[in-house]
Design goal:
The structure is a single chain. The chain has one domain: Butyryl-CoA Dehydrogenase, subunit A, domain 3, CATH 1.20.140.160. The relative contact order is 0.10. It starts with a helix and ends in a 9-residue tail after the last helix. The chain is built from 9 helices and no strands. About 70% of the residues lie in helices and about 0% in strands.
């Protein structure tokens, strides 16, 4: 897994052409998308990256179960941000944009059949897990790996990112009502897996 600074440098190197082209473009007439006024500039990008990179990479690593693939997803996500005309500079909306793009890239990754199966290494699997109980964290990571890809996305966005149903629906391309149903089913599945592993309450689910 590359360091966040290495990832940042890679994205910056690939983005220089975009920023140079935008800085040399004529003033906007309001008729063309992708003008300097609608593209994120380098300073704003640095700030957003520092605020979002840790959680975005943790999301990709946990859902994919592979740190190398997660780094690829994160790098491509930020590159798409740089190349995209943006209708807002609100940090929360930009954060939602990043998770939406990353979620779609993860789905594309699965569809190409390139995802490696198996339990991820401890650093990717347990980073961000709550509490100091390492055995519990490892058990949770193993249980998490038994969920299907969509269930992992749902649980991470809902319980780690704190996203509401509307935000999850936007990120995963689902209807809000579907998110509510799928989250309920996923929580029941997770409770069953925890019971089977001796970690959950006997009467839950």
């Amino acid at each position: 897994m590359a360091s966040l600074d290495v990832l940042l440098n890679d994205v910056l190197a690939a983005s220089q052409t975009v920023w140079r082209r935008e800085s040399e473009a004529p003033a906007s007439t309001g008729e063309m998308p992708g003008t300097p006024e609608t593209m994120i500039d380098e300073q704003a990008f640095h700030l957003l990256y520092r605020r979002t990179a840790v959680s975005l990479r943790a999301y990709a690593a946990r859902v994919l179960g592979n740190a190398t693939y997660a780094d690829d997803i994160v790098q491509e996500t930020y590159l798409r941000l740089v190349r995209s005309p943006l209708a807002t500079d609100d940090p929360q909306q930009l954060r939602a944009f990043l998770f939406r793009v990353a979620s779609r890239l993860i789905v594309d990754h699965w569809r190409r059949g390139r995802r490696e199966r198996g339990v991820p290494n401890e650093s990717a699997a347990t980073r961000g897990a709550p509490g100091p109980d390492i055995p519990l964290r490892l058990d949770m990571a193993r249980v998490f790996e038994q969920l299907n890809p969509q269930q992992r996305q749902l649980m991470w966005l809902a319980h780690v990112e704190g996203a509401d149903h509307r935000e999850i629906a936007a990120a995963l391309g689902l209807r809000e009502r579907s998110v509510r149903v799928l989250l309920h089913r996923t929580r029941r599945t997770l409770a069953r897996l925890l019971r089977e592993g001796g970690r959950g309450p006997e009467g839950s689910g």
